[in-house]
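Hi R.,

Here's the chain you asked about this morning:
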Amino acid sequence: MIVDGVLILDFGSQYTQLIARRIREQHVFCEIQPQTYSLAEIQEAKPRAIVMSGGPASVFAEGAPTIDPGILDLGVPVLGICYGMQLISHLLGGRVQRADEREYGPARLEVLKPEGLLHGFEVGTHVDVWMSHGDRVETLPPGFETIARTPNSPFAAVANLERNIFGVQFHPEVAHTPRGVEMLRAFLFEVAGCKPDWTPGSFIEQTVDAIRRQVGNRAAVCGLSGGVDSSVAAMLVSKAIGDRLTCIFVDNGLLRKHEAQSVVHTFRDHFGLKLIHVDAADEFLDALHGVTDPEEKRKIVGRVFIDVFQREAEKLDDVGYLVQGTLYPDVIESLSFKGPSAVIKSHHNVGGLPETLHLELVEPLRLLFKDEVREVGEAMGMPHDVLWRHPFPGPGLAVRCPGAVEREKLDILREAEAIFDEELRAADLYDKIWQAFCVILPVRTVGVMGDERTYDYVIAIRAVDSRDGMTADWSRIPHEVLARVSTRIINEVRGCNRVCYDISSKPPSTIEWE
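And here is the predicted structure, written out as tokens:
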């Protein structure tokens, strides 16, 4: 329910999530819905403002995505961005056509009238903006006027001030429009009268109440991995229902050094959660014996996890709910923005738990982005090391061990990663790097230690800088730090005599090796 928040109607723009992020950063709640969201649903949601995103389509193309024109008659402030602006113009009697010269990239916006989303700008101000369009508005609908222009877009920003409907041909949500956040703030606060009350504290209070109403007097179970999402979800549910939540931590033998002990200490001993620690290392490693295909490893780890988790969950009494750390990007990506045939990906349940558990889902984080999850965790007093730990793959060290997964190689890998972690923290680099880890290669090389010949494994170290993991570049770690890491691994880790640094970007490489 959006009540008093902002509704974003998505027309397939690559920037839609970014619009939501920018609005959330102003402590204003917003939700993304496909452009098929009906007039009746919007009336029930009672948004304080509507934002119509950009998109790759052309408004006059056959089958172009559209909306019920009645949405524009609700009296709710509307901001159309790129395609959203063109669609508003098209529906209200303006004319849209192919631009003589397409605009992709930077442009200079001239402010003509500091109204609406340009509130606070001075007339004649020139602002850098980011364009990405092949169509443009040629004739404005009745009641609209130009409030800003660029050399190639005479209607770069338009407004119907009486109806509080605005359109911009550029993208205010991207970093390449440096003053775009000011424009969004003006729309949110000056035009729509939104309140900046979407805070971690308010979210915790509302979510805890919602969990109590949903779960009632029943019990819940959570598959706790120690990662950010499952940890914050578990803490929220525990805050709501106390010891009626049981967390099951499955130790698969593929974790980092001392990780199992750390999870148990943090959540059972420190936070007092009811936690079952299942040591299933032998079960996982036996199932992985001799398997070298990366995808098969993932399937095996997932299947064994389900078996172990279900076995433990069935021992508990009166459990009616399963807690999952589903995030908002997962929810968004499971929606179809062009009809049921164009679902981007199916909604993925953590661990792929089977329906035979007959449990109703509790997803306390399903409205949050990753950075918001961390803010909520901080507000609940969770440790920095838990909230800001580097991403760790579900199959664990199995996919950092190309080739067959063997106990000896896992032990070597654990020791090497522990050293790499220690040195990054000592150099104050850990929190500045998106992800860092080691890989043990399925080859041996000749070395010399003392006066003896060795024939041991190679460790590759990997560190990348990224914002979201979708793209990444290798981290420029100072040579002296790399030297210390290499020296320590070779000197301290038996079975390894060579260290390499992976300097591949994503794309074309992936972050993990498997």
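One quick note: The chain has three domains: 6-191, 200-387, 406-501.

Cheers,
M.
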